Amino acid sequence: MRNLISLLLIMLVLASCSDNEFIYYEYKGVTVTRQDGNGESYFYYGRCDDNENPCPEDYIKAEYYGFDGVMHAYLVFQEDKRVKLVRVADNYEKKGKDSSLYLFDYRAGYKLSTWLDSIEGNYDNVAQVYYARDVEKTTNAENFSRVNASYPIQN
After folding, report:
1. What is the distance between the alpha carbons of residues 19 and 28, in angstroms, rounded to a whole number?
2. Do 28 and 47 form a contact (C-beta atoms < 8 A)?
3. In whole angstroms, what is the distance from residue 154 CA to residue 41 CA?
């Protein structure tokens, strides 16, 4: 019975991360595109897709393979139209030199905790990004994020 419950839980998590789907995060005219697939997420500055708007060569890649892999970060839309991706869990890598979307890592855990405490209940220009979309949606709604997230329609 325990194995069946574990299997169902794993299937539920995997189902929440469909392959090659685009999510768009928009705030005050700035868009970040997220493309998910097979334990990886790519974040691009601007709106892109596989069809008419190809994604740029500059991106941030998140890798979250294996049983304990979890993609967890925050997008912070800044007044200067740049977007900071604050890393929380797993591996991230910046490709390219465009600084419109950049990776930020609190070196000390207590600084990340202090920042998270300071925005709790008032995300405003911040959106949590998480490998499990239902958790992401709930957390952003509960903390009054004003970032508009557009998710693919699930069948």
Report:
1. 28
2. no
3. 18
